[in-house]
What we know:
This protein is of the alpha/beta class. The chain is 34% helix and 15% strand.
Amino acid sequence: MANLSVFNMEGKEVGTIEVSDAVFGVEVNEHLVHMAVVQQLANKRQGTQKAKTRSEVSGGGRKPWRQKGTGHARQGSTRAPQWTGGGVVFAPVPRDYSFKLNRKEKRAALKSALTDRVQTNRLVVVDELKFDEIKTKNFAQVMKNLNVSNGLVVVNENDEKVMMSAKNIPDVKMALPNTINVYDVMKAGKVVLTKDAVKTIEEVYA
């Protein structure tokens, strides 16, 4: 088991914590991490783009000129793709871009992402996050103390004062242990976990 430093909200080291190799010390599978990120981005796509083909564009019902004898190339419609106002060749149509990864692949990808953050010293463990009031300034100061400018913060419970304090900070995203995903972990500059969140993640994903 690896030992990670634990910091308080002032950014001072107050101890260490042992983390499970089953979650934070696996062999990093870059291919699975890549597939998990691609899947999440693909599943977010609306797929509602649409352009008209030559069969859908209005007009062009008659042949613009006779087949032979005019000196022009033969044309059957003024709505063919080579004409201004014509249809689009291989036009995009509404479609579903989503695809599935099985459960084992998703879990392995998340473990790989968390392990990568441990190996690259971009995972910070804080003893707790508690505030007496909802105040963005206080949360921003804690992030500054922990030297986190762009981060994913994972807390063990949905504490309104903590969640609302972080809401207006553009480069900080809050999550619970059961809502973290590979894309958010890899996108964040640093991942901040409370001690309780570490234990819950180990219980859920080990």
